[in-house]
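quick one before i forget lol
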Amino acid sequence: MTDKELMLKGELYIPANDPQLAKDCARSRRITRLFNATTEADLDTREELIRELFGGTGEHFYIEPPFRCDYGSNIYIGENFYTNFDCIILDVCEVHIGDNVMFGPRVCVYTAGHPIDPGVRAEALEFGKPVTIGNNVWVGGNVVINPGLTIGDNVVIGSGSVVTRDIPDGVVAAGNPCRVLRKVTEEDRKYWEAEREKYDQTMNG
C-alpha cells in the first residue's frame, strides 16, 4: 500500500515517501497560484481552475482569492458554495461541503493531524480524518474546523469559533471550544422572512 493510499484511509503515512503525493501537491500549488493571480475580470477563468482543482463542484459557486489547499482533489462542494477571503482547506482526507454553504473570511478546515507522542511525530508521520459540512450552513469569519468532524444541516457557527466536536442539525454554535448555544427556531424564520419582506417593499416602492 502506498503512503497516498494510507493517507486517504486516515492511517499514519509519510508524505515525503510518496512521489505521487509530491506530484499532487505541485499540481495544487500551480492551480492555486494561477487562481490567486486572477482579477475580478477573470471570473470564468477562476471557475475553470476550481473545477480542475477540486474533486467535485456544484453548478454555481464563488471562491474569493486568495485560497489555499493541500491537494484540492479531495474537496467536494455542493451547489451555491461561497467563501470569502483567505480560506484554507487542508485536504489530506476528503472534505465534503453541502449546498448553500457560506464561509466568512479566514475560515480554516483541517483534516490533517499529527501524533501526540513527540518521538513518533519527529519521524514525519502524520494522519488525516475527513470533515463533512451539511447543507445551509453559515460559518463565520476566523473559524477553525478540526479533523474528523461533522457539522449538520441548517447550522450557524459564530465567528472566531474553534470546532472540536460534531455539531448537530439546526443550531447556532460558537466559542472556543465551539458549543451549541441554542436551536434555530420557527421564530427565527418568521423574523427573517419579515425582514426580507421589508426589503422587498423598500426595493419595489
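fyi The CA atoms of residues 90 and 110 lie 5 Å apart.
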